[in-house]
Amino acid sequence: MSAIITLTTDFGHSKYVAAMKGVILGIVPEVNLIDISHEITSQSVLEGAFVMMTTVPFFKNGVHVGVVDPGVGGPRNPIVIECEKGILVGPDNGLLMPSAKRLNMLAVYKITNRELMLESVSHTFHGRDIFAPVAAHLAKGVKPEEVGEVVGQCQLLDVEAYKDGGGMLEGQIVHVDKFGNLISNLPRRALEDRLHEGDEFQILLNGKPYSVRFENTYVEAPGDEPFALFSSSDYLEISIPMGSAAEKLDIRVGDSLEVRL
Amino acid sequence: MSAIITLTTDFGHSKYVAAMKGVILGIVPEVNLIDISHEITSQSVLEGAFVMMTTVPFFKNGVHVGVVDPGVGGPRNPIVIECEKGILVGPDNGLLMPSAKRLNMLAVYKITNRELMLESVSHTFHGRDIFAPVAAHLAKGVKPEEVGEVVGQCQLLDVEAYKDGGGMLEGQIVHVDKFGNLISNLPRRALEDRLHEGDEFQILLNGKPYSVRFENTYVEAPGDEPFALFSSSDYLEISIPMGSAAEKLDIRVGDSLEVRL
Amino acid sequence: MSAIITLTTDFGHSKYVAAMKGVILGIVPEVNLIDISHEITSQSVLEGAFVMMTTVPFFKNGVHVGVVDPGVGGPRNPIVIECEKGILVGPDNGLLMPSAKRLNMLAVYKITNRELMLESVSHTFHGRDIFAPVAAHLAKGVKPEEVGEVVGQCQLLDVEAYKDGGGMLEGQIVHVDKFGNLISNLPRRALEDRLHEGDEFQILLNGKPYSVRFENTYVEAPGDEPFALFSSSDYLEISIPMGSAAEKLDIRVGDSLEVRL
After folding, report:
1. How far apart are CA B20 and CA C23, in angstroms?
2. Nearest Cβ partner of A218 from B11, B30, B124?
3. Which among A62, B26, B111, C173 could bridge B78 via Cys, Cβ 3.0 to 4.6 Å?
4. What is the DSSP code (8-state) at residue C250?
């Protein structure tokens, strides 16, 4: 049974990703390389964290590399997070923390072992020069503690940092999918007792009010007005039947969502 | 020799596809996962059917998963189609039928065996919760008849549903590629006796008339006017030299193509 | 240890690529298929050559297929280039030459052996009908000399064809990445003695002048003005902090870059 390395980046399906794969296969040729997404909104650590957090748990074990790294070349550390259900590799900018929580975090290590990196490390592409080779060595059996010292403190990021004021919840859009569906950080568990099929309620997207119906599935939604449902990852999602909510409502990752029940 | 599972969706290269891959690899780690396309026009069962039909025959055997599924969560069945040259898995909405014909269909089964699905099945993502795990089990050796009962009748879809009125053929655009080439559902066999290199003829794209020349290859086409040729899948294709016919003529999947010879 | 076949095309992540993969896996099922990029600007042999040249060296060995092939169906030859550090397969239009140089070229062969191609060869898709099956056979152990005769002369392409007039260098943009960074063909070695962190200098992009600062990393760049740095592939790159230089400056592959020091 071969090891799995997953890759999540904001690089596009590009030569940058391919260079990382070349480096990895040079170290561990028998590994199974899986792309999670390379279409993360450029430099959106938030969306990267959300996408990784809601996807890596579907892999039984695996080394998960995340590179959404606007601070590359600056003082942020490269880290490895050892978890009960996998290993995470990437920058210490919050990107990996939500995934670490879901995989049951055990320890965080700062990557300092030069023998596990490419010989020459650039200022601009640690994905290729540090994260890819380190992930390959981990997939090959190197222990997390061999990458460097344990880190006591690291950059936190709570994807679910929303406000719940009872009748009003304030969150934000953390992912837009290819259909143009707007996926928020308001979790199902915070809403499911208060929202039922057919309920009408008010939302504000980027401050602009809409009246939406709550549905259980896409097929139940009538017309071409926005409606709400729980996404397949169990977050509140705003969708438009047979159209792109992102385009029609002019919304992108990071925009605010207020729900009034 | 490892089994092959191919994936065709309208999800984009996204976390949805990656979640399906995670589920599959958890069941059958040694499988070879191949993306056919995830850029099917959102909810276009027609384009999905065309893309699968013209691509899966290039794989010797394999389990082919198709998910273009606007009716997910509604009454349409999840099905498996056993064929002489492979197995198809997806929704019963016509998507799989043209491929089934090319792979020599043997039997259609309705997926009802809960043991082959994820423990919890969502209303919105059967790709992850039903089709991925079922495909993985099939790739691992589960027999198609183990997924459920044989279905007597299922949703038909004829990608090649064009009209041939002798001097006039009416079809539609079923695929637009990255170059902006417009691929129609008018098959070479219906036209090759009547079209020869250098012939000039009239077409109507979405009702708008153009005079085009028939060429054998892209390189022979002069200027920047639309021309016609047979695509590599043997359908009539409208192209513009060094430009995007889709953009310049403002045409998308589903638009009509009329040919006057 | 399984063989690697990499693919670089301007096809998009599409059914064309998938058909190539089906053909390859039918011949050599155990091969490791890696996508380098399928988002090469349509018909830009220059960008394809740059992307391959800066990526294939990261793979220890491998058969590298490149298909950016505006002349498909015309007189250009299909070729195989045997190198010390890998094998290249594609059209004789210059696409493979810069990579061949970096992999230490040994010999060029014209592909004529019909037994290594698909039974029927189309006029429009040699990627599927010639390059894919030939690459598969090479990955399986067929020797380069079995594909056909040695070619004495082939189409050259120098990605680094820039002019150095001392205080003024004239090159061009050869790649635009997903961030909108503009990567030029001006190599670091031509500039590093003359450019230092914090230096201000003039550039002309497509004839339009900008004053830019030279930085070592992305994080050092202030504001939202264009700045310059060396790309991770060691070429001069023009970038805009947290924005797309390609969009904001309206530049694409092939546009000129003049540097005045």
Report:
1. 24
2. B124
3. B111
4. T
Residue reference for tokens 């039909």:
B53
Kindly provide the b/e burial profile for residues C29-68, where b requires at least 16 CB atoms within 10 angstroms of the residue's own CB.
bebbbbbbbbbbbbbbbbbbbbbbbbbbbbbebbbbbbbb
- Best probe of the A interface among B11, B14, B68, B128, by most A CBs < 10 A, is B14
Among residues 65-84 of chain B, which lie with CB inside 8 Å of chain A? 70-74
Provide the 3-class DSSP secondary structure of residue A127: helix
Give ipTM to 2 decimals: 0.96
- CB neighbourhood size of C241 (10 A): 18
Nearest to A255 by CA among A187, A188, A208: A208
- Residue A221: pLDDT band by 50, 70, 90 thresholds? confident
**Nearest-neighbour CA in chain C from B74: distance (Å):** 29
Confidence of residue C78 (pLDDT cuts 50, 70, 90): very high
Cβ neighbors of C166 (< 8 A, separation 6 or more) are none
Place of tokens 């950016």: C68
Contact call for B73 and A6, based on CB within 8 A: no
With beta carbons under 8 A apart, name residues in chain B contacting C74. 217, 219-220
Please report the number of interchain residue pairs, chain A to chain C, with beta-carbon separation below 8 angstroms: 92
Please state the rounded mean pLDDT for residues C230-257. 96
Q: Which two tokens stand for residue C110?
A: 């014209």
Determine the average pLDDT of the residues in C55-71: 96
Asked if residue C33 has pLDDT above 90, the reply is: yes
Count CB-CB contacts under 10 A for residue C206: 15
Q: Which residues of A touch C34 (CB under 8 A)?
A: 18, 21-22, 25, 33
- Tell me the two tokens of residue C120: 């029927």
Query: What single letter denotes the amino acid at residue B258?
Result: E
Q: Which two tokens stand for residue A177?
A: 């999918």
Q: Which amino acid, one-letter code, is at C10? A: D
Check whether A19 has a pLDDT greater than 80: yes
- With a cut of 70, say whether residue A236 has pLDDT above it: yes
